[in-house]
Amino acid sequence: MTDSATNSLANQTTELQASGAASAQASGSGGAKPPVLFCDFDGTITLSDNIVAVMKHFSPPGYEAIMSDIVSFKKSLRQGVGEMFALFPSSMRQEITDFILRSAGIRAGFQELLDWCKNNGVAFFVTSGGIDFFVQPLLAPFGIPSDHIYCNGSDFSGERIEIVWPHPCDEICTNDCGMCKAAVIRRYPKEQFTRILIGDSITDFEGAKLVDLVFSRSHLTERCRELGLPHIPFENFHDIVHHLEQGDWRK
Ligand SMILES: [Mg+2]
Ligand SMILES: [Zn+2]
């Protein structure tokens, strides 16, 4: 067996142990804590990250330096995302929206997960670092109540696109998130809820540290491995329904 195959097996074992620990925790002792799901949008509900896709497609001069500063934590998400959209004139609103609506795909099983949550009385929140003008139209077919969708806002009244931040960090978070997933998660105390985060990347890093279980893809899987956070890698939402079905928290 090659070293990389051994490492891969070791990683799988860690993930299985983590998942076992999480479901044991979820079952609690005596009364089970109801799960609450916090689900990322870009690259999680959608197949790829729409902000990255917009920047790569239109390639406004200067975006690459800003994006690299975000990825290397030199710039906060709030500052970087604000600066990148300010590279566009507001008059491009329709063109950018059309591009996203045309190119974004929804990950398989999303409707199944929503149905499962409804049938099991489980609260489902979209916690997105994306922007309302594309998050809302892409989610419209799914009938998620608007107060269960957290994302950033936008203002096209000036010369350049301005991103606005209706859900800022609370007094505990110093990350300057823009849309603060940690602050949203903290409204559901761990003593009362089994908190589950679903995500893929940098906007999920802070929230992942708080929850009982992470369903992870991509960079978030690597991050969870590094930090030893309980996580289950997934490919699509059918996988997540499968794991939730196995959970014994409903007893
Ligand atoms: Mg994402
Ligand atoms: Zn924050």
TrEMBL record:
GO CC aspect terms: cytoplasm
Classification of source organism: Bacteria, Bacillati, Bacillota, Bacilli, Bacillales
Gene Ontology annotations of biological process type: L-methionine salvage from methylthioadenosine; L-serine biosynthetic process
Family: Belongs to the HAD-like hydrolase superfamily. SerB family. Belongs to the HAD-like hydrolase superfamily. MtnX family.
The protein's name in its UniProt record: 2-hydroxy-3-keto-5-methylthiopentenyl-1-phosphate phosphatase
Function recorded in the entry: Dephosphorylates 2-hydroxy-3-keto-5-methylthiopentenyl-1-phosphate (HK-MTPenyl-1-P) yielding 1,2-dihydroxy-3-keto-5-methylthiopentene (DHK-MTPene).
Pathway linked to the protein: Amino-acid biosynthesis; L-methionine biosynthesis via salvage pathway; L-methionine from S-methyl-5-thio-alpha-D-ribose 1-phosphate: step 4/6
Gene this chain is encoded by: mtnX
EC number(s) reported in the record: 3.1.3.87
Keyword line: Amino-acid biosynthesis, Hydrolase, Methionine biosynthesis
InterPro entries: HAD-like_SerB, HAD-like_sf, HAD-SF_hydro_IB_MtnX, HAD_hydro_PyrdxlP_Pase-like, HAD_sf
Domain of life from the UniProt record: Bacteria
GO molecular function: 2-hydroxy-3-keto-5-methylthiopentenyl-1-phosphate phosphatase activity; L-phosphoserine phosphatase activity; magnesium ion binding
Alphabetized Gene3D superfamilies for the sequence: 3.90.1470.20, HAD superfamily/HAD-like
Catalysis performed (reactions): 2-hydroxy-5-methylsulfanyl-3-oxopent-1-enyl phosphate + H2O = 1,2-dihydroxy-5-(methylsulfanyl)pent-1-en-3-one + phosphate
CDD domains assigned to the protein according to its UniProt record, in alphabetical order: HAD_Pase
